Sequence to fold (494 residues):
Amino acid sequence: MRYVVLALAALVFAGCSSTVPLTPGPAPGGLAVELTILQINDVYEITPVEGGQAGGMARVAGLLRQLEAENPNTIAVLAGDYLSPSALGTARVDGERLAGKQMVAVLNALGLDVAALGNHEFDVSEEAFRQRMRESEFRVISGNARAAEGFAPFENVDEHALLTVGPDQIRVGLVSTVLPSTVKDYVTYGDLMDELAADAAELAPQSDVLIGLTHLSFADDARAAATIPELDLVLGGHEHENVRAYRGADLTPVLKADANARTVYVHRVRVDRETGAVTSSSTLVPITPETPEDPAVADEVARWVEAAYAGFRADGFEPDRVVVQLPEPLDGREGTIRTRQALLGTTIADGFREVAGVDLAIFNGGSVRVDDVLTPGPFTEYDAIRVMPFGGEVVVVELPGRLLSRLLDQGEANAGTGGYLQRSGFTREGDTWRAAGEPIEADTLYRIATNDFLVSGRESGLDWFSVDAPDIAQISTHGDVRQALIAELKRQYD
Fold:
């Protein structure tokens, strides 16, 4: 392969975030040209996160402008997941949910060049998905996600992209596949590795630099780097935490930034046009309040926030209203809420119990989508929407202890996925579950508060947990899950 790595490492899942000068160094020889790539992935919020201390698309745009000024051979890419899930995306504007419309508009203003499809792009309806693709002024690619009808590429989605970049006319090929985890009747998936390899083989002869812009698990990205020799870099998403690794005989880099643009990767790729050799160095750059904003993108962000807030008000929420002053952080990051009992999960479940008037509550961690730490300080109604953007109702169901124990066991087995169950009123001693302090009895009927999604049978491994199933009965409903959270926070902290 053409690739030469400038810095070697085994596998790093953190760190690498110290600030370094961004100015490119001299090219090694007169025939070398340099390409700069700004990489983001898994971006759901157009505004900053972590209480304003990280992320924000106006700041990302400010960094991009700096990079463009330093090197006109610069592109910006997004490695999947940007339409959903998003709190703003659930707002109704002009009678329709935004469903990523705000993100596409902001990415257009930013000047994104290429986006890969991620699994969450298919959270939205087919009509919304196709409309977002039509609105995109950037290229969208996927080599394996196709329209179910006819197994053909979606309109405005290319299987791959070949760009000619900057005054040096650098030919940049980009290939992409997405993991097939979102099942919708309007999308079907080809083999993610076979399609990626075939597209790489097709584009390599036409490219100075060939990039895998993917939305896959790390294991699949590592396999691609190790087995597809044409790839010079694999720029991925999906994990939500930064990754730097090298795989294969040529030590092909695999790089992912942190979700919601807490960090971005800046890659400097040098091409020797005489030998065809490609070298690179990559810097993980934190996006902080010190990162200058691009004014035009800041205005676009503000426009969509204002429109979304108006929609929330029409639905009975006052986004700016402060619910409480949080005295302690509430961790809603996926790595927490989907793997272990968290204070935020307990608080939500406590709210379900209180509003429903029962002693036990349980819900799927995947319904928490904030992927952020809610820091001490003001917690607003918009924060409640951010925590559970899909909403839903609190419901009470009745079921026998044997099914309740099965439910709790499956929740533990689902650790690491959205089907991990957060709970209140339950404890475990060895292999024995206790409900309200007492061992669960197989034939005793229990009433638990949960969310309507969990009892719909649509959660992974829990298709049997449905009000349509024998021995499971819905007893009552108790309003919006976010209102239950708001009420519980007031009860605990007000």
Notes: The chain has two domains: 3-303, 318-493. Confidence is low (pLDDT under 50) at residues 2-29.
